[in-house]
Amino acid sequence: MRNKILAANWKMNLTASEAHDWLVEFNETDSDKSKVEFRLYAPNVFLSDLAKTQSLHIGAQNIHPSDFGAFTGEVSIPQLVSVGAQSALIGHSERRMHFLESDAFLKEKVDACCAHLLPFIFCCGEPLEVREKEEHLSFVRSQLRSAILHLKNTDLSLMTIAYEPIWAIGTGQTATSDQINEVHAFIREVLRESFGDSGANVSILYGGSVNSSNAQSIFACPDVDGGLIGGASLNASNFLELASSF
Q1: Is pTM beyond 0.85 here?
Q2: CA nearest to 155, candidates 103, 194, 104
């Protein structure tokens, strides 16, 4: 059975005091937190303090595939694990676009996570020009093929996939249920083709302007197992409210 996951991605937002207040609100909000696995992907500077609470899964927004070396400004998996990180994001569209992370580099990150037995969320999704040409499925297949389809079935327990159409991130524009259904079902089929029945057990999240008004229709899609939430996760109560949409 696939896990239901709500993952908050704070991106480069909140100060230390705001992060503390968020966590207090999350812990004190009276809601059922047992039905969904809540994850928080926070800036590296907060990870150590957040991990001490042990009230939810804490992950890193980025990793470097090398364990050590002359990579000023980067952070390795052993370093992140040593301060309590439990997983990592790989291939977020903003890393691809703004930091020019290539498919080959993302494959290195995936392999590094598997070598360290570190769970990860692999992000994929198409830009607007690809969607308009109706080449989105082949584009997503290429992203999957280049970075994850070489994995062993035994690695799949570490992996979650997030489909995030780039044209719907931070724009207020959300893919329709039919569009989301199409791509999630396609990703599921690609996983089955490569990994057999094991591919059916990989959770696939949707990321793209999810909020309280559209979450119920999105999470009702058969192959949507949760969300990678950006702006709507910056308020703890709003983030928790999304869990009631399953």
Answers
A1: yes
A2: 194
Q: What is the pLDDT along the chain (246 residues), one digit of tens a residue?
A: 799 999 999 999 999 999 999 999 999 988 888 889 999 999 999 999 999 987 899 999 999 999 999 999 999 999 999 999 999 999 999 999 999 999 999 999 999 999 999 999 999 999 999 999 999 999 999 999 999 999 999 999 999 999 999 988 777 677 899 999 999 999 999 999 999 999 999 999 999 889 999 999 999 999 999 999 999 999 999 999 999 998
* Annotated catalytic residue 116: no
Catalytic residue among 94, 126, 164, 184, which? 164
* Structural domains in the chain (count): 1
Q: What residue type is assigned to position 240 of the chain?
A: L
**Structural contact between residues 219 and 246, judged by C-beta atoms closer than 8 angstroms:** yes
| Separation between Cα atoms, residue 218 and residue 227, nearest integer Å | 9
Q: Of 92, 94, 101, 126, which residue is the catalytic one? A: 92
| Residue range of the domain that includes 182 | 5-245
Q: Is 94 an active-site residue?
A: no
Beta bridge partners of 57: 39
What CATH number does the domain containing 182 carry? Answer: 3.20.20.70
